[in-house]
Amino acid sequence: MKALNGLGTVLLALGGVAVPASSSSPGELDALRLVAVQDGGRMKPLDTFARESARRITGAKPFTGGERVRRLDAVEWILALLARPEQWRHEPVVRVAHAGLRQEVGLPAGRDRYSFDELASHQGFLRAAEAVFEKARLDVPLSPLEQEIAALHQNLSLLAGLLSGQALRIVPVPSGEDGAWLSVAELGQVRGSEPLLRSREAAGEMVAAYARGDRQALAQWAERLRASLGEAGGAAYPERAALEREVRYNRTKPFRLAWVVFLLAFLLLLTSFPLRSRALGWAGTALAGAGLLATTYGMVLRTLISGRAPVTNMYETVVFVAWGAVLLALVFELFYGGRYASTCASGLAVLALILADNVPILDGSIAPLVPVLRDNMWLTLHVLTITLGYAAFFLAMGLGHLNLGLFFIAPGRAALLKTLSLFLYRSLQVGTFFLAVGTLLGGVWASYSWGRFWGWDPKETWALIALLGYLAVLHARFIGWLKDFGMAVGSILGFLLVLMAWYGVNYILGTGLHSYGFGSGGTGWIAGFVAFELLVIVLAFSRRAHLAEAVPAVRPALRPSR
Amino acid sequence: MHRWWTVTFDGLASVQLAVITMSALAVACIAATFYEAWRGTAATQRLFYGSFWFSLLLGVLAVNILLSTAKRYPWTRHHVGFVLAHAGILILLGGSLLSLHGGLDGRVAVAEGDTTDRLELPGEALHVGLPDGTHAVLPVAFTLHPPAPGTRLAVPGAEAALIVEEYQPHVRLGDVWAEAVEGQTGNPALAFTLGGHHVEEQGGWLMAGDPGQAHAEYGPVSFALHAARDAGELRSLLRVSREENRLAFVAAPDGQLRYAISTRQGATSTGRCTPGQTIATPWMGLTVRVDRALRAAVRHRVATRLPLPRREEDRTPGVRLRLETGGASASQWVGFSESADLLLNGAPAHVGYGRTDTTLPFRLTLLDFKSETYPGSRMAATYQSRVRVDDSERGTSVHQISMNHPLHYRGYTFFQASFIEGQPATSILSVSRAPGLPFVYLGTLLIGVGVLWMSFFKRWVARRQARRALAARADAVGGLTVACAPGSHS
Known about the structure:
The complex is a heterodimer of chains A (about 550) and B (about 500).
Chain A: H1 7-13, H2 30-33, E1 36-39, E2 42-45, H3 46-58, E3 68-69, E4 72-73, H4 74-83, H5 85-89, E5 92-95, H6 99-105, E6 113-115, H7 116-120, H8 123-137, H9 144-164, E7 171-175, E8 180-182, H10 194-212, H11 215-233, H12 240-252, H13 254-272, H14 278-306, H15 314-336, H16 340-358, H17 377-409, H18 414-449, H19 458-478, H20 484-509, H21 523-549
Antiparallel strand pairs in A: 1-2, 3-4, 5-6, 7-8
Helix pairs in contact in A: 3-4, 4-10, 8-9, 10-11, 12-14, 13-14, 13-16, 14-15, 15-16, 15-17, 16-17, 17-18, 17-20, 17-21, 18-19, 18-20, 19-20, 20-21
Chain B: H1 4-12, H2 15-39, H3 41-49, H4 52-71, H5 80-102, E1 104-111, E2 115-129, E3 135-140, E4 151-154, E5 160-168, E6 171-179, E7 187-195, E8 202-207, E9 215-218, E10 221-227, H6 231-237, E11 246-251, E12 257-262, E13 269-273, E14 278-280, E15 287-305, E16 318-325, E17 328-335, E18 338-344, E19 347-373, E20 380-391, E21 395-402, E22 407-409, E23 412-420, E24 426-433, H7 437-468, H8 470-483
Parallel strand pairs in B: 10-11
Antiparallel strand pairs in B: 1-24, 2-3, 2-19, 4-5, 5-16, 6-15, 7-8, 7-15, 9-10, 11-12, 12-13, 14-15, 16-17, 18-19, 19-20, 20-21, 22-23, 23-24
């Protein structure tokens, strides 16, 4: 077949061709998934780029991930956009989730999905976006609504880039000062290089084959496209193994798998208590171990993909805390048995991983790091240790709830209370150790990177506040000011301090040197959580006061199960 | 029963005091971080972390740790972790104190190709340069203690004084132009506005004979105002060229204003103009309107007082300084990190307001500065400075400073902090000297080992001993559970 003059021609020629509606998850696209795209400062497989674009534009919803568009696999959707841009301009796929935004700019009511054409020609929205950009240019801080407007505008630009092919920077020819790769749309302009000419032909033929519905030809041309792009890029082109690894990470979704496994583990462990079934208990513990392995697998993949420890943003630390809590609980299980710690940790892991999987502010995409976070051993040690501390406190918080729950449901179960209190105390000890060491390592890192060991920056101050809080609790236990009940309350209050150090400094205070992690959103949820915890504590105190009045009905004491 | 000092010692060495002090410190820190989000870092450092009462809290904690550790002497194997961790905290606090008093924090700003030995320190200072070349730096603390009008500061090493005529914590400084009154000498000046179809209106002042104000550049076009003393000079100043895009205004000896437009394309023109008149130019529909013309203008700097922003670091303080020496005196407004030129009986001098500084015992030259982005994006990946150090004692050496890779040199550490874009680029290095750092590191190590010991090894040792008393313990656990059952707490 004669080499085509460029993709533009192909796209024009395809104007009237109907696109077959295919909804399978097609293996023919596997080669296309492995095409490297330059996006957001790194090279990623097209699979990742397509999923991220689909999530952004169509708005990820809880538990669905939003990685399919109109029943099309994300990569196939990218292809469909190229093949029939005219059709997709009219498809209402852009989600405007923010009801206030829809009302503010006057979008048609009664739905939250709009087409590209609808939004790109909507005067109200364009005017609002213009005003927001003017504010941003003057460095005026944006309100949450204005941030939503800016984000929607960015999503529209992305969609425009996908429709025109300009967002698909897959041609490994660095151009300009920033070394940007050329896009599919610019493929028509390349001259000379043999592999590039073949890439051009393959891209055109691939889109044409897709438009015809010829899946076999599609697979062949996709494979040729990948091969010729790889050849054109030479040594600078990402290795196939690395791209395959990332696609595997995208497909297996190890953290989603992990929370499902943890959920099963939690349910089995929970039922094992009333049924007094050792078998169920063992199965549950084994499943918790399997969940831990799945989480570990996911973290290892992420580490290999990004080339750094998986603790550099909120998403990763939430996953890591879930992992750490389960690991610690299983260590307790090894020493003390009893299944309480693993039950509690499985439940907490489900909670944390579901949050990570579904809350938009916990963005799971892998992005490059700001300079100060790069290639630094102290940073890695500091964050890993601190986060392990958070994990132990997370577990302690969960055990604290169990303890307080016991005060409500079965105040007589003194032996069980003692066992749980022992676990809680151990968790606090482990957490305090890691938090102390992690905070000091943070000082070592700061001394190394910023020139001072300690500067009362809000992030480091809050780590110290949490540490002081837990140290106060541990010392108060030592002199008998706090007993089991007090420790349970302390573990919950302490975790609120951790939450502030972990989330609050970045999202509520928003000042200081750790600004690379700053963001907004979720404040309402966190406030709700804090209010709930305070309510729990108040209820627990009133319950205890009530019990103190009544004659305590103490069951015969049992030895703590070991 | 007890003597008062035993009671005091026990109190100061008690765990109770530790719990109270730690809680108080935590509460103080919580308040401080929220205050910082509201009022900024400088005020928080002053009111909280750097305050006397905060130091006192830390001091109480240190005394408590010291005495509680001493109280348990003679130490046994049981105390290893406890002593290590608590001694570590004391050593860390001591090291911090040493760095606080014997160290320094500052910054060096140096442009590519430039050499400097000036280290900028956090404090405020007035700078003065006298006609005889004397330069002096006078440390002040105006932010904290606003000076009273008339405050007089002697310039060390010279028969001169700086008088603070007025101080404003947050101002915008601007120029006001007026015709000179009798006794003043003025120069021709004019105000103009650029406009046109695709141009945002902008304008400025031109003043003939003023090196900083006689010319202005707007994009590819330059503007100038000259004063002609006679007809010959007028002719030569109105001569047009085809080498540049230039609009030259000329104040003629008769007081009239003329202009001459030179363009590279060759379309030149000349003419007269009066205030209010708009001149069409050959540059893409650009128009120039003359708003005001003054024959003999003088410029006054004026300060407009602005409402105070919430954060101290967002303020731009300004001060009107009068420099007096040998009977001559002149005054001027200067904003923070600005300096102003003065004429004392015709001799040039200058005053400035900014940071204090000190000189490094060696000189730094920025050979080049590089910032790299992640491929295909504008996200910064690294920035680095290549510097040459010229040291009279140790000779010359070349070093690379980048994020996370500082330069350690003669007790100073240079970190890549930030940079100012431009041609040439300016690299900003933060500089610190922390003599207490080895102690801080030692303290860190001891705390780490001590806490590890207390949390884990001690239990392992204890368990070995506990096995011997297993039978006795079984009873004890039973008793303890009853004692700790709910309801028995209050």
